[in-house]
Amino acid sequence: MKRTMISLLLVLCAVVGQAREKTVVWEHPAVDQNTEIEGFFQTLLEITRVEFTADETRVMMHVASRPERWVRFDAKSQLVADGKRYALRSLDGMELNTETHLTEHDYIDIVLHFEPLPLKTKRFDFTEGDYDAAWRILGVEDARTKAEQLFPSNWRNVQTGDWEISFYDRCAIYDCQFWDYKEWTQKGNKYIFVLSNGNKRINVIVDKAKDGKRTISIDGRKADYSLISGITLSDYPTKEYSTTFKDTNYQTDTVTFVGWLKDMPAQFRDMGNEFDVSYNNIFTDKQMSSYGKIDAQGRFTVKIPLINASEVFFDWNRCYIRTLFEPGETYFMLYDFKGGHKLFMGKNCRLQNETLAHPISWGFSYPYEKDMDEEAAMNFLEELKQDKAKAMAELDKVIATHPTISDRYINYLRGHYHIDEGRNLMQGRFSMKNHQVPAAYMDYVKREDWQTASKPYTLYRDFSCFRRDLVEQLISESGNVKRTHYWWGIGTPEDVVQMSDTYPLLLRRNKAVGRVVITDEELELIDQYTDYWLKNIAPLTGESFTMPAEMAALEQQCADILRREDIRKVLESEILMTDLWLTMDALDALGCDQTIRDITLTHKLYEQLDWERIPLKDCALEFLEDYVKMPAAKAFIRDENEKYLAIERRGITHPDNLKTAEDVANMSDGEQILRKLIEPYQGKIILLDIWGTWCGPCKEALSHSQEEYARLKDYDLVYLYLANNSPEESWQNTIKMCEATGDNVVHYNLPNAQQSAIEHFLNVNAWPHFRLIDRDGTILDVNADPRDLDSLARLLDKMK
Questions:
Q1: Over 70: is that where the pLDDT of 8 sits?
Q2: ω before 116 within 30° of 0 (cis)?
Q3: Nearest residue to 657 via CA among 773, 740, 770
Q4: Using CA atoms, how far apart are residues 634 and 794, in angstroms rounded to an integer?
């Protein structure tokens, strides 16, 4: 009996053993070629596991794509091994031949069931369909056998989880640098190298592969390494609990970023030989870019000046990546267009690799509806709350399934989603009737998103937009000023005084510090007239209006007050201070820390400089000293102010080409004025540019003037610039800054009435406005925008 039982057990073990032998598994297989690795502009495909059985071959695949893009797998998908084709039988997770949008997540994990490949298969190719544009993943192989081939290969330290060294045919990568093979000895599957980088030399010994791993000694430091087979690094072996990000107290430091766009396709190389990294300057609230030249092999180095740890974006058209860089660090990025790898190397790059492996969620709702009432606004709030909850749930899923994910990654993404929600909610105010935001809506923003903002405040690009919109909304709700910035004249026709709805605020501020002498009764008179004017006169659009006698008398009283010497001087010098004082009130209401106050006030002072293009007035510089505490912020404004002082001291080239309005002084018809201005240039093509110092896009276009003149030098053009409503000093300084001068460049800053007449004749309703005028004076109705120089050049070629 015992003998029978033993026999039965032996048979059972044999059966179980045979069953086990019938399943062969490749975890995270390696591939020779996978070009679908991006996931934002394209669809990402990654084979995560392959199971071979006697009945079928199962291919597990991770697919990522933006929800608005559809994904489709063809029923004719197949595997190819040793010249034989194996058909697809079924697909789990999606329907075959069906365009599917990944609306629940930005990704999906699927299982493709194929006809059975031999259990001893070494390599196979995957093809999605039998058409030319089909997705292909070629040279799929067990990572354990792939590790036996050293070239090409990328290796991570088993203990730390970091990518530390790579071996390619022409170079090695180590310590964020490219190394040449100075000496090379091979004994079977063991290698001994002397690597060189300039004057540096290192000795590297690579032991033979065993179960997908190798022992590698680098300059005497020996460690175990595993082959990197996936698109990104898989989970790090241990948990990291640090939650801090580098804070330089807003002093600028440099990031060194080295990269390799390996096997870059021709269409991407044709985009140019510069790699750009964009980031936000928190003091200017402008996107900045740093560039590095891409060499013939696809290598580049970019030096990036950053204030604190900051969100950065890479070369959107080629390898779209958003991540975080920290000043003082050196990073190396491998973006292998053919082999299908996206990896970061560096002493402190775990977060960067984790954001590649588990990307930041996109797609928070944006306020497309216009003129939302309170109900629609609250519905939009609920929609965004659901978006954030979905992103947070996705993060919780990552935390649960990847227990060693770092706390820095977790905190970084949580902070991201608070800022994304807050930014979109405050952008929503522009879609609400009269920018009237419900109180409950604002309470939620301040409680859930503003109060949870992570430090340093440079971590997220969209924080600047969120901060700016929130402060502006609080200012508009404060009741201190209507925020319309109306200007109008009051008093007798012989002695008109300029009035503004911001005067009551400025007068009260300056009375409190003793700069003006004005009674409370006089302030009340100015308040009464301002309120009357805003309610009864400002809304009128051309209708006639007769002011009641009592209000006319009140107007005259206000004019007499404003004519007083001390009041007039203070208002003239401090009118631009209005935003600063209102901003201070809003910051007080928010209970901001000093860092936020410094950032916000510095941005406001920078806006004054950028808007006016003239140095700050003494009152603004006094404000800087009194209220901004951060040394880096003060230094930034002082440096910017010095630029404008230097511009003021600098003469302008070709001063005779800054024309006066003498020739058209008595003219009022827009067409006649324009004809008179172009009269001296008959026989030449004229590019007319109507712009203004108050117009950001105008100044941006003007800043490329020398590039424009050089590109179009063969067309014998005259550049005629007409400035709209631009103060003389700002006008001249902007021309100097942008170097918009030359023998064939003419500038006019006409009186407002004459400029308006020309614009009315040309039907100008947006700035900048460009027109071409032919040699015979014909004004052409064509798109002559020099911001697209290639198109403009083609148009000028036709005119030849």
A1: no
A2: no
A3: 740
A4: 47
42-99: pLDDT as tens digits: 899 999 999 999 999 999 999 999 888 899 999 999 999 999 999 999 999 999 999 9
Confidence category of residue 543, pLDDT binned at 50, 70, 90: low
Phi-psi region of 129 (alpha: psi -120 to 50; beta: other; left: phi over 0): left
Lookup: tokens for 678: 């172009």
Tokens (6 digits) for 24 = 């062969």
Tell me the average pLDDT of the chain. 92
Other Cβ atoms closer than 10 A to 30: 25
pLDDT tier for residue 21 given thresholds of 50, 70 and 90: low
- Return the pLDDT at 651: 87
Quickly list DSSP for 627-690: H---HHHHHHHHHHHHHHHHHHHSPPSSGGGEE-SGGGTT---HHHHHHHHHGGGTTSEEEEEE
For the chain, percent of residues with pLDDT exceeding 70: 96
Peptide bond preceding 456 in cis form (omega within 30 of 0): yes
379 vs 372, 386, 429, 722, CA distance in Å?
10, 11, 13, 46
Give the residue from 323, 322, 330, 175 showing the smallest Cα distance to 256: 330
CATH number given to 24-141: 2.60.40
Instruction: Name the E strands within 35-176.
Output: 44-52, 57-64, 70-71, 78-81, 84-92, 100-101, 107-114, 123-127, 136-141, 153-157, 163-167, 172-174
- Under the banding of pLDDT at 50, 70 and 90, the label for residue 579 is confident
Q: Helix or strand or coil: residue 281?
A: strand
Q: Residue 1's pLDDT is what? A: 47
User: Is beta strand 123-127 parallel, antiparallel or unpaired with respect to 136-141?
Assistant: antiparallel
Distance CA 60, CA 111 (A): 5
**For residue 12, is pLDDT > 80?**
no
State pTM to two decimals: 0.87
**Residue 478 to residue 582: CA distance in whole angstroms:** 8
Residues in a beta bridge with 71: 100
CATH 3.40.30 fits 252-351, yes or no: no
Domain 655-799 matching CATH 3.40.30.10: the answer reads yes
Position 669 pLDDT exceeds 60 = yes
Contacts of 237 (CB under 8 A, 6+ apart): 158, 159, 160, 161, 404
Q: How far is CA 218 from the centre of its chain?
A: 39
Query: What distance in Å separates the CA atoms of residue 428 and residue 381, rounded to the nearest whole number?
Result: 9
Considering only 375-379, 539-543, 584-588, 620-624, which range has the smallest mean pLDDT?
Answer: 539-543
**DSSP collapsed to 3 states, 343-397:** EEECCCCHHHHHHHHCCCCCCCCCCCCCCECHHHHHHHHHHHHHHHHHHHHHHHH
* Residues paired with residue 500 on neighbouring β-strands, in sequence order: 487
Q: What is the pLDDT of residues 109-150, one digit of tens each?
A: 999 999 999 999 999 999 999 888 899 999 999 999 999 999
* pLDDT of 577: 86
Query: Residue 427 and residue 420: Cα distance in Å, rounded?
Result: 11
* Cβ-proximal residues to 380 (8 Å cutoff; 6+ apart), any chain: 365, 367, 369, 372, 425, 428, 431
Residue 105 contacts residue 46 (beta carbons within 8 Å): no
Q: Is-contact 164 242, C-beta < 8 A?
A: no
Q: Does 467 have pLDDT greater than 80?
A: yes
The terminus-to-terminus CA distance of the chain in angstroms comes to 108
Strand pairing class (717-723; 685-691): parallel
Of residues 613 and 488, the one with the higher pLDDT is: 613
Q: Which CATH architecture has domain 147-227?
A: Beta Barrel (2.40)
pLDDT for res 435: 84
Name the residue type at position 35.
T
Q: How far apart are CA 189 and CA 147, in angstroms?
A: 10
Give CA–CA dist 333/331, Å, rounded.
Answer: 7
Contacts for 312 with CB less than 8 Å, ≥ 6 apart: 277, 278, 279, 304, 306, 322, 323, 324, 325
